[in-house]
Amino acid sequence: MLVHNLRPGGMARFGLGYDDVAAVNPGVVYCSISGFGPDATLPGYDLLVQALSGLMSLTGSPDGPPYRAGVAVVDVMTGLHGATGILAALHHRDVTGEGQHVETNLLSAALSSLVNQTSAYVAGGVVPQRMGNEHLSLYPYEPMATGDGELIVAVGNDRQFRRLAGALGVPELADDPRFASMAARNANRRELRPLLLARLAEKPAQEWFRILTDADIPCGPINDVRQGIELAAGLGLDPVVSTGGVPTVRNPLTLSATPVRHDLAPPALDEHGAEIRAWLRRN
């Protein structure tokens, strides 16, 4: 298996393009990751593709500038797509003995990962716009101010909204025709929002977190990264693992028969260079 993220044609300059490698090793699974596909030699960077794909146009306040995501999400999503393709190709090779060329790129991965937002345009001709922290089709589904800070309230169906209205002490809202269905709440969110905020302002965020959680309503505070790690640890997810004495975030997969192993720490620059070059010379 070979994975690279050079520009299209970059590996061929070294005699290591797919056709070159497959001629020697027909069973090779060869994954090429580029910025914009095999016919474009443009350099690809996460920030650039967040902008070009439309992702940044969806991030930020409606009346403010677009923002990039806080991490290199396009890089991560493209890597996951590449890994999925490699696994499919390895399975095909197990069955047939044939290798193949797997290709993905940052732009295609970004467009695929925009899911309902790209579908809104492709299927409906609707160009999505920034909505801040609001959801396109669910309400309430956003951070909401309480007596001393914000709390995420994520109501995904009518039953949850009825429980929310009861927990807030305004059960009549669930029977109000303006709010009785998700479609109605979406259409009348500007009328509903101040009614919810007025009740939430009466107690601090942590007290509402307890009350709403007890009512089985998805909600939670906005944590920083430290608090996120601490939450995962408190839930028994063991988020931190030591690899070669270096602490890192645990792989999120759990496999019952073949548990994930964390054998090696991330390598230093050229740590395995001599070993890899020797392997290349032998092969």
Automatic annotation (TrEMBL):
GO terms for molecular function: CoA-transferase activity. InterPro entries: CoA-transferase_III_domain, CoA-Trfase_fam_III, CoA-Trfase_III_dom3_sf, CoA-Trfase_III_dom_1_sf. Keywords: Transferase. It holds the Pfam family CoA_transf_3. This is Crotonobetainyl-CoA:carnitine CoA-transferase CaiB-like acyl-CoA transferase. It comes from Kutzneria kofuensis. The lineage of its organism: Bacteria, Bacillati, Actinomycetota, Actinomycetes, Pseudonocardiales.
